[in-house]
Amino acid sequence: MVKIIDYKAGNAPSVLHAITRLGCEAVFAVQPGELAGASHIILPGVGSAGATMNSLHGMNLIPALEDAVLKKRIPFLGICVGMQILFEHSEEDNAYCLGWLKGKVVKYDSSKVRVPQMGWNLVNLAKSPLGAAQDDYFYFVNSYHAIPEHKPDIWGVAEYNGTFTAAVHRDNIYATQFHTEKSGEAGLMLLRRFLSC
Amino acid sequence: MLTKRLIACFDIVNGMVTKAVQFQDNINVSPAEEMAGAMYDAQIDELIFYDITASAEKRHIDIEAVKKVARRVFIPFTVGGGIKKLDDMYEALKAGAEKISVDSMAVRNPQIISDGAKAFGSQCVVLSTQVKYTGQTPSGYEVYIDGARVATGMDAIDWLRRGQELGAGEICVNSIDRDGTLSGYDLELMKAAQAAVTIPLIASGGAGKPEHIKEMFAGTQAQAAIISSMLYSPRLERNYTVCELKEYLLQHNIPVRPVRV
Predict the structure, then answer these.
(1) Is residue B199 part of a domain?
(2) Closest approach of chain A CAs to the CA of B43, in angstroms?
(3) Burial classification of residue B238, based on how many CB atoms lie within 10 Å of its CB (0-12 exposed, 13-18 middle, 19 or more buried)
(4) B27 has a pLDDT exceeding 80
(5) Smallest Cα–Cα separation from B56: which of B81, B36, B37, B74?
(6) What are the start-end ranges of the H helices in chain B?
(7) Domain of A61, in residue numbers
(8) What pLDDT is attached to residue B56?
């Protein structure tokens, strides 16, 4: 069963609709015990890094998440802020995050580009266990972007005031800065591949 | 690179998509989720729904309609109309909308912008505003509310700036002078808007043919264009498909997400 972390600020319902459309079953998880038996875990994200971390702490979900993802190696997908909080620190709210991946999250320079970035951007995805390399358009809404310290963690890149990291992958952890669940058929296809891993 | 967005905009009355000319004489077109589904299949980039009578009838937005749309389309969509407080925003987001548009209500209670941005993030709050050139304000542009029927005396360009300060993530500028006229977007208005704010702008009002969209994107910094009549209005001699519009824009070097076959 696919478990979607629902911390009441995110886009969890949209992710659920997308998974249902793909013919899979998913349920929301709001308590640590509800992660038990997960085949896949999805952490959606809308809102700020600080608020998201506070919610996860408040729900006491972090130890259970780390057990499931880092120890049991259950396939994990982070979306948008759900990707950003995988890093050590975010400039947004000066938030200390999960630190599963080395690196930090910084803001786009609003004197150079309109912030937030909002719309469909062309992403170059490298080959991964989810499939061959591909270029496709995905939907972004973000003011901040991750700078991974370990370059091999970078799975996809796109351009917005220079090249930025649009997706990361390491072991069983996948994460996209773009909204996979709102990126039309390209997004659904990526989600389908994640659910088959 | 980030592409320019084409946003199909629907006015909803009793679950039906309607089309008005300068805010009057709505005519029914088809059920909201059907139209949304057809637009999704045609690969439109984004959708906006205005429950245009919700405010006037003092009722909440049609949540059931939002849910039906959310199960059918997997692209971002915004809803507006009848949003008065934070709970209304939460209900619409929970039903599957990405963004909430605030218009007249934000003029009456600007705090709804900052409250919404704090609770759900700036990206969820779209400030929509109805603008008319009256020459009665410092910029000449004036904000209208309540279906563009009531003048406020507020300077429209100031209002956009304030909306950004309050935390709006995006601004949709609708030209009352051009709305439904099919004579092209108000480029001067968009230029005044883009100089005032740094958040993304959506141009609205006046699109009647592909050239209008091209001219707007080539001549302003707006990142998105609202199109409605030209897609589906039965009053028009000719409607355009999303594919036709995107191919035309790509031919004229306007970056848009191409339609996949």
Answers:
(1) yes
(2) 8
(3) exposed
(4) no
(5) B81
(6) 32-41, 63-72, 86-94, 104-108, 111-120, 156-166, 187-196, 210-219, 229-232, 242-251
(7) 2-195
(8) 63
| pLDDT tens-place string over residues B97-139 | 989 999 999 999 999 999 999 888 888 999 999 999 999 999 9
| Three-state secondary-structure class, residue B135 | coil
B75·A184 Cβ contact <8 A: yes
Task: For residue A159, list chain B residues with Cβ-Cβ distance below 8 A.
Answer: 1-2
> Tell me, what's the pLDDT at B57?
67
The count of domains in chain A is 1
- Within 156-175 of A, beta carbons closer than 8 Å to B belong to 159-160
Q: Identify whether the C-beta of residue B164 lies closer than 8 Å to the C-beta of residue B193.
A: no
- Residue A127 scores a pLDDT above 70: yes
Q: Is residue B258 part of a domain?
A: no
Give the DSSP H or E segment for B47: strand B46-51
> Into how many domains does chain B fold?
1
In a domain, B110, yes or no: yes
B130 strand-pairing partners: B144, B174
Quick: pLDDT tens for A51-108: 899 999 999 999 999 999 999 999 999 999 999 999 999 999 899 999 999 999 999 9
Q: Which of A9, A160, A184 sits opposite B43 (nearest CB)?
A: A184
Query: In terms of residue numbers, what domain contains B62?
Result: 5-251
In whole angstroms, what is the distance from residue B78 CA to residue A178 CA?
Answer: 17
How much is the pTM? 0.94
From chain A residues 42-101, the ones with a CB under 8 A of any chain B CB are 46-48
Phi, psi (rounded to 5 degrees) for B214:
-60, -50
Q: CB A118 to CB B223 under 8 A?
A: yes
Q: What ipTM did this prediction achieve?
A: 0.93
CATH at A92:
3.40.50.880
CB contact under 8 A, A46 and B122: no
Is residue B259 included in any domain, yes or no? no
Over residues B47-71, mean pLDDT = 80
Distance of alpha carbon B76 from alpha carbon A118, whole angstroms: 11
Task: Tell if the CB–CB gap between B74 and A185 is shorter than 8 Å.
Answer: yes
Q: Are A108 and A143 in contact (CB under 8 A)?
A: yes
| CATH label of the domain that carries residue B186 | 3.20.20.70
**Do residues B3 and A121 touch, judged by C-beta distance below 8 A?**
yes
| CB contact at 8 A, B5 and B164 | no
CA distances from A181 to A95, B48, B235 (A): 25, 17, 35
Catalytic residue annotation of A: 80, 179, 181
Angstrom CA distances, A30 to A2, A3, A176, B89, B121, stand at: 13, 10, 22, 21, 21
